[in-house]
């Protein structure tokens, strides 16, 4: 959970549910073990109503390894996801109405000739497709995503989104936002530790922008040396 090169927030709820399942009392457990399990479960229950729970649920949803399989209230999470996707659809249509349309569909319409173009005027349902409201568009895209087969747990979810991002125009925006959340505070604590090493008593007059440069170089020196060698 302390990694920085892969998604971590999406794995919080699945791990939490696995821990809860493993802490359930069994017949062969001793009274002491049952008491220990009960104490641990009671201390974990407070996290279920945590303000971050909705963000963790959405992060798990956007992870193709988990989707809704580790979410306790899948229908509620789907409603929340559709609401956020609807806002993205509305914003995209308002800012870029021409770019929002399906370019592939428009190209096919333009390429129709002869009888195909003539009969399409009467038999095509493209008008009804184009008049779907943002909620319908969001539900359609979400259902298409949920119909995709789940990938194995060893697979990198970010690699999956690199391949399928163009198929889900609004989902990719939310996936980029929620999958970038860190599952623990270790990464930010590393930055504070680096800041303490840069801003010392002997360098107390260091300007903020120069301190930021030093911290940035400290965390990206491997990339810098790689580009220098290449």
Automatic annotation (TrEMBL):
Q: Which PANTHER family match?
A: BED FINGER-RELATED, BED ZINC FINGER AND HAT DIMERIZATION DOMAIN-CONTAINING PROTEIN
This protein's species is: Trichonephila clavata (Joro spider)
UniProt cross-references to InterPro entries, sorted A to Z: HATC_C_dom (IPR008906), RNaseH-like_sf (IPR012337)
Highest taxon listed in the record's lineage = Eukaryota
Organism lineage: Eukaryota, Metazoa, Ecdysozoa, Arthropoda, Chelicerata
Matching entries from SUPFAM superfamilies are given as:
Ribonuclease H-like (SSF53098)
Domain HAT C-terminal dimerisation as annotated: residue spans: 141-219
What name does UniProt use for this protein?
Dimer_Tnp_hAT domain-containing protein
Provide a Gene Ontology MF annotation, just one: protein dimerization activity
